[in-house]
Amino acid sequence: MKEVLDFELMHKLARQYGLDQVLDESAMTELRLLEADKGETICEKGERPERLYFLVQGKLKIFTTLPNGKSLLLRFSTPLALVGDLELVNGREANNTVQSVSRSLLLAISYRAIQNTYVENPKFLYFMLSQVTHKLHTFSNLSSLNMLYPVESRFASYLLSIIEQDAAASEEIQTSKLTELADLLGTSYRHLNRVIQDLCGRDIIRKVRRKIVIENIEELREIAGGNIYE
């Protein structure tokens, strides 16, 4: 990630998401604005983070790697989302990998700058508690999605999760690595390919070379059953 030396934008984003209300003055001076490119890793499973990140623009993909080497999609995160909050508290290595889905902006502060003061800041502790509670709620819902719903529903939820809120029905989605996507959804390449062919035959999506175009987003939402990886 690279640092964005735009202090006016940094303070504007901090105020927009109320961070100036939960971080004390000394912590605010330690904030840095970072830019992550599409596909760039923010935090990798097994590493020990050194910063707490606040996602203020863009979208992140959170997944875990299983003992057999395959990956499993856990959720997508949109602003305001935290990365490294659990590791700040428990001091352990990261359990999941976090990647930027598109260009993202994150406010970051080193653990060193806050680890000796955050326990004395009740506003910050309440903020952290609300974020952790949200994560637990979404993790419970998405665990049910991964275990109980058919691949068609999981795939529909995945497509809905990666398009922007105001995306048109013709939004194009890159799918050059279907094997990797199958792993993320906890299925086989062959099964996922059958699901895609079936959705194409029902005119819900359309394959154009290495891309998928959503033709009927309302049908896709119905298949997803109100579930989304967020």
Strands, total number: 12
Measured by DSSP, the beta-strand proportion falls in 15-25%
Radius of gyration: 19 Å
Classify the oligomer: single chain
- Output the structural class: alpha+beta
Average of the residue pLDDT scores = 85
Alpha-carbon distance between the two ends:
23 Å
Helical residue percent band: 40-55%
Helical stretch tally: 10
Order of helices and strands: EHHHEEEEEEHEEHHHEHHEEH
Model regions low in confidence, pLDDT < 50 over at least 5 residues: 165-172
Shape: elongated
Largest sheet: 5 strands, antiparallel
Q: What is the strand arrangement across the widest sheet?
A: 1-2-9-4-7
Keywords:
230 residues; alpha+beta; five-stranded antiparallel sheet; four-stranded antiparallel sheet; 12 strands; elongated
Task: Write structural notes for this entry.
With 230 residues, the protein is of the alpha+beta class. 41% of the residues lie in helices and 24% in strands. It has 10 helices and 12 strands. It has helices spanning 7-16, 19-22, 25-28, 85-90, 111-114, 122-148, 151-162, 178-184, 189-201, 217-224; strands at 2-3, 32-36, 41-43, 51-57, 60-65, 71-77, 81-83, 97-100, 104-110, 172-174, 205-208, 211-214. The strands form 3 sheets. A 5-stranded antiparallel beta sheet has the order 1-2-9-4-7. Strands 3-8-5-6 form a 4-stranded antiparallel beta sheet. Strands 10-12-11 form a 3-stranded antiparallel beta sheet. A hairpin with a 5-residue loop joins strand 5 and strand 6. The two termini are 23 Å apart. Mean pLDDT is 85; it is low at 165-172. Residues 26-135 form the Cyclic nucleotide-binding domain. This is Catabolite gene activator protein.
